[in-house]
Write a structure and sequence with these properties.
- This protein has 154 residues and is an all-alpha fold.
- The protein has a domain of 100 residues: 434 Repressor (Amino-terminal Domain) (Orthogonal Bundle).
- Helices cover 48% and strands 3% of the residues.
- It has seven helices and two strands, in the order E-H-H-H-H-E-H-H-H.
- It has a two-stranded antiparallel ribbon with strand order 1-2.
Length: 154
Amino acid sequence: MPEKRNLRKRGVILTPHGQIRLQQARREKEIAENFADRFTLEEISDRKGLSIKTITKVLEAKVPVDKPTIEAFFHGFGLLLERDDYQQPDQTELTGTSATANILSNQESETQLEPQPEPQLEPRPERLLQIDFGESPDVSMFYGRQQELNQLMQ
């Protein structure tokens, strides 16, 4: 007897709209929490508790993942997953990468119609040097050495 194959469609992928929202939220978090440096896949994995392979699947939006995974990913960047952020994989033929290109080209054409000032890059915050003095002795009670101090002052 031939084996029946499960025809049920499982998992969802990000729509171009969802990808854009996620990229914007990710960039905001990188600026706020990582001195504007990009998060590595390892850092995202540690923050979200997802495997690097799963993160790659979500970001590429080609291989379906379960909806709670995408919800957790969005939640990690402070977003709520909306219905237009994801779709069933069989809908990608209608709205796949060409839809992303259309969205981007529409944004470009809008910017060409209305000249916009170039975005001002915020100055990158300098990384602060942090020194731990937890084990250092309390020097407030030291005295003497006046002769050496005078020699150094000269």
